[in-house]
Design a protein that fits this description.
By secondary structure, the protein is mainly beta. The model has no long low-confidence stretch (mean pLDDT about 80). It has 1 helix and 4 strands; from the N terminus they run H-E-E-E-E.
Length: about 70
């Protein structure tokens, strides 16, 4: 992406918990992608985080930047 589209880095703008339990959490993260300090694109990405045998990790992550915000 760096060579093809000029992508610079990714930052999380907002982090929202939708639901949680002692061994599972559902979250949405607003990601913004910066190229040379300017907004490249953004998208809301859902995450499911689980505790399996005492180890927390990302069980599922799904999302892509919002196509309407992509810089041509």
């Amino acid at each position: 992406m760096r060579e093809r589209e000029g992508w610079g880095s990714s930052n999380s703008e907002d982090f929202m918990a939708n639901s949680s339990a002692p061994t599972k959490g559902h979250f949405e993260v607003l990601l913004q992608f910066d190229a040379d300090g300017a907004l490249y694109g953004s998208g809301l990405v859902p995450y499911i985080v689980t505790d399996q045998d005492g180890y927390w990790g990302i069980q599922l992550r799904s999302g892509v930047p919002n196509a309407e915000l992509m810089v041509p």
